[in-house]
Design brief:
Helix content of chain B: 25-40%
Mean pLDDT of chain A: 88
Number of helices of chain A: 5
Shape of chain B: globular
Low-confidence stretches of chain B: 1-13
Radius of gyration of chain A: 15 Å
Number of helices of chain B: 4
Structural class of chain B: alpha/beta
Largest interface: A-B, 30 and 22 residues
Distance between the termini of chain B: 16 Å
Radius of gyration of chain B: 14 Å
Strand order of the largest sheet of chain A: 2-1-3-4
Number of strands of chain B: 5
Distance between the termini of chain A: 44 Å
Order of helices and strands of chain A: EHEHEHEHH
Oligomer: heterodimer
Largest sheet of chain A: 4 strands, parallel
Strand content of chain A: 5-15%
Low-confidence stretches of chain A: none
Number of strands of chain A: 4
Shape of chain A: globular
Strand order of the largest sheet of chain B: 2-1-3-4-5
Chain lengths: 136, 134
């Protein structure tokens, strides 16, 4: 991936069925300079990947996805479309936060905006709040 | 400083936080990026169920921009009605490809037909937010 003040931001395709996780991880990656494209499932991800004009540098993908295709199957299809795509699999919020932090260490601004544990804590807090408010 | 995703997550100063609800991923991407370019903080939801999850998660949203026809248990009009009843201070903009919905059910704050002109949507959102700003 490239960096530099005048370079276009590197782009991460974030694929996760949990909207709260997508929002927090997506915000985190944008804060460290990435362009983030969000997809809720494999179908959406593949629709994005088939757009040749969209540059995608990495795909951060949950193992379990809603719909008929899981993350591993998506990864195989994604590499068929884009053999040089960096595919990063996650299975938990903590893993997703750690991988996002690693991307930020490597990425456009070469720094983490804040510690990944804050990301995990925020996801947990939002999920708990959602569960308390379920039915509103 | 506005912190729509929680007090511990620093975000850049923006006009307002928009919850964009759209099931077509490429339309959602293009619209979200146009709104971010205009200075809005944009949270994305792929359907009404996800939108309610976001709203129940205590993220601070100022405006909900929602498509009408979406997969899931409820559509955009049901979402608008739930938002109005549960979070009365939120502003609501609906987007529809169906000409029957050009006259929106009250009360929403604005409505647009598809395809949405991004510049008009941005102008509308800035006006909505300006009316709310003390």
């Amino acid at each position: 991936m490239t960096s530099g003040a005048d370079a276009a931001p590197d782009t991460v395709l974030l694929v996760d069925g949990d909207v709260l996780l997508r929002i927090v991880i997506g915000s985190y990656l944008r804060d460290c300079g990435y362009r983030v494209i969000e997809a809720v499932n494999a179908e959406e991800a593949l629709r994005v990947l088939t757009q040749a004009e969209l540059r995608i540098d990495a795909m951060l993908c949950d193992v379990e996805l809603p719909g008929g295709m899981d993350g591993f199957a998506l990864a195989r299809r994604a590499r068929e479309q884009r053999p040089s795509l960096d595919v990063i699999m996650t299975g938990t919020a903590a893993r997703a936060a750690d991988e996002a932090a690693e991307l930020c260490e490597q990425g456009p601004q070469l720094k983490k905006p804040y510690e990944p544990q804050a990301v995990v804590d925020l996801i947990r807090r939002l999920r708990a709040e959602r569960d308390r408010n379920a039915g509103r | 400083m506005h912190t729509p995703v929680g007090q511990h997550v620093p975000v850049p100063e923006t006009w307002s936080a928009i919850l964009l609800v759209e099931d077509a991923v490429l339309i959602r991407l293009a619209t979200a990026e146009a709104l971010r370019e205009a200075g809005f903080l944009v949270l994305e939801a792929a359907n009404a169920d996800e939108a309610l999850t976001v709203l129940r998660g205590s993220t601070v949203i100022d405006v909900v921009v929602t498509d009408i026809r979406m997969p899931g248990a409820i559509d955009g009009l049901d979402l608008a009605q739930t938002v109005r009843a549960t979070w009365p201070k939120l502003k609501i903009v609906i987007v529809s490809g169906d000409p029957l919905h050009e006259r929106p059910p009250a009360p929403v704050d604005a409505s647009f037909g598809k395809p949405v002109d991004a510049a008009r949507l941005i102008s509308c959102l800035k006006q909505i937010v300006a009316r709310c700003t003390p």
